Amino acid sequence: MSVVGECLVAFVFGSVVGLLVQRSRFCNTAALRDAMLFKSFRNTKALLIAMMILSVGFTLFMTFGQGHPMEFDVGINSIIGLFLFGLGMVLAGACTVSTWVKAAEGNVGAAWALLFTFVGMFLFSLVWSVSYWPPAPASMTGQPNLEALQFGQANAATLQKNLGIPAVVFGTIQALILFAIYRAIRRKEDAQQLKHDATVAAHATAAPAGKSGRAAAE
Amino acid sequence: MDLFRKTLDPVIALAAIAVLDIFLFLLIGSWTVGGGETMMTGLIARGIMGDAIERIPFWNLVFVPDAGYWKIYISLGMFFGALVGAIASKEFYLRFPRRLSEWVMITIGGLLMGFGIRFAFVCNVSTFFGLTPEMNLGGYLAVIGILAGAWVGSLVYKKLLEG
């Protein structure tokens, strides 16, 4: 595809995503933070559903050598980087997607977070220019490089190549594991609801008739 | 239209995004945000510093500023789509963080996000909507990192809320 074509496709995709995220108030930060802090799973469930669809979808096409999977070496830097990112997104109250979406809603705090994401990236470029770590894409080999704390590259396609089992089989197993997590969350929610209903019922019977009648009307 | 009056169920929104992401994966590559933002940083830095940017090896060896990089347009598209959604549903209005502590938290959070993205080569979007569904080893490492980071962040956040 031509450069202009790629940019156009990317813009259309981004626009639809931006609209859907704005209208649903989905937030990746909330998906993790709310589950940990408030035991609230509205966004977590949506994230899990998307990951199930993607696991089967991506690995199905990877089975036939289609699609454009990301290819670069990973290592300890993946854990450290996302640790810093996870800490940052909870403090900022927004991730990469929601900074753009909330900024478009007129949220100046989100625009400020975005500005400092750029500043953080620029600071990293200065640090990298001294440390040269993690390795630049050009010097990546796809093989483990333990000296540089790099594990090389492995994904559903390499699993298929090395084990002779179609990639989609692994993807389906992953989707089932994600589904098990989703089901556990649903059960937890049902239990929370039952507990909530029981508390409400207990309050209703404990309160005087007139008061509970008014509460019901409210 | 109903879409602009009621809040959309995030499960429906994310399922639709997942299907679109599969098409994008087939055409150019899965949904990602950090790469586009890095390229924008490079373009902005070049705009401000001019040729002085050549002296920072990162911008020669890792990211060479290029306005034709498709990932930039995903981010611009998200801003555009969200702006349309916010205006059509009359949800656009300027809001500012009130307390100084919020400004400080957002500033530190933004810096950590930008720094972390480049350290790992990925952001949260590529982690959950790209690498992990591709069953890339990096996706699992990144998920461990982001869960630990969000957990520590939640503890800090809770402390600040209560304090």
Describe the structure.
The complex is a heterodimer of chains A (218) and B (163). By secondary structure, chain A is mainly alpha-helical. Helices cover 74% and strands 2% of the residues of chain A. Chain A has helices spanning 3-24, 28-37, 42-63, 76-92, 96-104, 108-131, 156-163, 167-206, 209-217, and strands spanning 74-75, 150-152. The longest helix of chain A is centred in the C-terminal third of the chain and has 40 residues, at 167-206. The radius of gyration of chain A is 23 Å and the shape is globular. The model of chain A is unreliable at 211-218 (pLDDT under 50). By secondary structure, chain B is mainly alpha-helical. Chain B has 7 helices and no strands. Chain B has helices at residues 10-27, 34-49, 58-61, 70-88, 100-120, 124-131, 137-162. The termini of chain B are far apart.
Strand content of chain A: under 5%
Euclidean distance between termini CA atoms of chain A: 59 Å
**Total helix count of chain B?**
7
Number of strands of chain B: 0
Low-confidence stretches of chain B: none
Q: How would the global form of chain A be characterised? A: globular
Radius of gyration of chain A, taken over Cα atoms and rounded to an integer in Å: 23 Å
Are there runs of chain A of 5+ residues with pLDDT below 50, and where?
211-218
Instruction: Compute the number of strand runs of chain A.
Output: 2
Q: In DSSP terms, counting alpha (H) and pi (I) runs of 4 or more, how many helices of chain A?
A: 9
Rg of chain B (C-alpha, Å): 18 Å
Q: Helical percent range of chain B?
A: 55-70%
How is the biggest beta sheet of chain A arranged?
Answer: 2 strands, antiparallel
Mean pLDDT across residues of chain B: 95
Specify the overall morphology of chain B: globular
